[in-house]
Amino acid sequence: NYLRPLGRSLYPDSIQEGDDVNFYAFTISYEADENKDIQLKEHSDASVVTFNINLNLPEEADYEGSSLLFENEQDKQSPFELLMTPGALCVHKGLHRHQALPIKSGQRHQLIIWLFGKHGVVRFAPYEEEEQLLTVEKRWSTTEESPHWKGRSGWFGLL
Q1: DSSP alpha helices (H): ranges in 11-149?
Q2: C-alpha angle 62-110-13 in degrees, rounded to nearest 5
Q3: pLDDT score of 121
Q4: Core vs surface per residue 104-140: b (16+ CB within 10 A) or e
Q5: What pLDDT, on the 0 to 100 scale, is given for residue 141?
Q6: Closest C-alpha among 63, 66, 65 to residue 107
Q7: Rounded to whole angstroms, how far apart are CA atoms 79 and 60?
Q8: DSSP type of residue 68
């Protein structure tokens, strides 16, 4: 009920009805141990929008490093860095190139949720302004009468 409307509100040029009807959620942990995940190389996600949530508790903020580094689309030579403090949420377009920098000490735990269209389709071309037609009701719809609810149940209701 919250993630789809949030993504649609933040990125109306990229997400319209039907572009975010499915999701994939997973966790990843970074740990300063050579046998564990230390970093994640630059990539883009298989989603129209990604929600990245730090699951560490405030008392687990003793890790060092492991920031997210995002490509600056206006100046490729000047990426921007985001510290993922406990409880922090980062929402970005799935196609925005990014990476997790190496963790130097401690552990950082993340919940990642990708939203994408039917059959795994990820729209990459922006909508023209006249195509951005989602009404407030469609953007925030949570009723089963809404077209994007037909045939859906269970976990889908969380989105």
Answers
A1: 136-139
A2: 130
A3: 83
A4: eebbbbbebbbbbbeeeebbeeebeeeeeebeeeebb
A5: 58
A6: 63
A7: 27
A8: E
